[in-house]
Amino acid sequence: MKSILILILISFLLAGCRKISDPVSVNRYDPESEYFTGNPAKGLNVKTLSRSSVKLIWRDSSSFETGYKIERTALNSGKIDTFMLNKDVNSFIAENLDISETYKFRIGATLDRPYFSYTDSVTIKYNPYPEMVTSPISGPVQLSDNSERCISFTSPSQDSEPDQINIYNIHGNDFSLLRTKSFFRKGTANYFLSGDGRFIAFSRYDIYGYYDIDNDKMVSFQDLNVRKIAISPDSRNIIIDHSDSLLIIWNIAANTRKSLNVYKYFTSGFSSIQMSPDNHYAACSDWDKITIFDLESMSLCYSAGIPTNGEVMGFSDNSEVFFFHCYNYSFAQPLYFYNLKNKKIFYTKTPGYYQYMKYIRNSEFILCYSGGKVYFWKLEDDIPKIEIPVYFPKEIDGRLLGISASSDGSFMPVSYQYTDFLPTYFLRFKENWRTVK
Known about the structure:
- The protein is built from one helix and 36 strands.
- By secondary structure, the chain is mainly beta.
- It has a five-stranded antiparallel β-sheet with strand order 4-3-6-7-36, with no helix packed on it. A four-stranded antiparallel β-sheet has the order 8-35-34-33, with no helix packed on it.
- A hairpin with a 2-residue loop joins strand 14 and strand 15 (207-212).
- The chain is elongated, with a radius of gyration of 31 Å.
């Protein structure tokens, strides 16, 4: 009898041992199992990397998984993508995201046995609203390409011409007044801040020159025939519209000048002049014509009888594409793009009333729509593709007067009243995918 009891006890113990060691019956991540020890794929979070990519991060709290499975669902289109990852990882970069979509990500650990389930999820949507930064500045602002310096203009009254220039240094969201300069006491003048924030080019009917901000030094020349002035994107050259039908290129460092006679193309002066980033081309516009000159061969490159808003034109970063907007008060017009390499012109299918455009890095540019929206466009195979409108905060929507932007498009001063009593807002465009419920 005693031996029988011993045999029964041994059999019971052996059966228990088989249950614990049997891989079929044991799954530490099966919530129904008595041996469930918790899931390693928890705490799923998202970090924005760019407008088209995010980084998923989670806690890897165990070493029993064989890998991870991530499911990405585009909720608007219904498209589902699945990604298989190795074990012992705690992050994954999701790329090629469409900022007009809403995405749901789910994650789960894969195991030796078929006990798989998604254990955490997160849903994200692109945030189209920029951060609004208040400033001590009022009135129109010109911003340097690196967002570290800007100039504003002070007028005795709302209807008078500016008589002072205020120079500000910018550190993050903090503005400090460097100095205030008075170039002219009366008369209409043109001012242009260089892209590197070091120089201010200026011109009036009887004088032109530049002001070296860092060294507080002015270089000027008396001339009764200067109309418009601008600085090249690399801050090396000043381009001058001279009333003797000359386009003058002044190299600041070498103090040398070369000129191009443009009499047969323009007889009444330009409304705007610009140079390409590589200093190879100069674009000139008046109210009924747009013309591009090759500054190396000193010859005409392109001309079109199109009325153009001089504030809405410019060159791409690689100087291969020139863009401009056909200006018309009566009805909306498209954006035109001229490829300087293959000599082809193309345009957007969606017309609009555009007040400002600036080409920004990575082959994109910013433009401001007159209704108070900023649009991000991107060129794909020479076709302008609109991506998404970015809405201004309610405080400045629809009151736009002047706008500028840094070269990467991340910082944009917006003035909506030419007066000393209302501030100029700075909009900071952050790449921001936010989580939603």
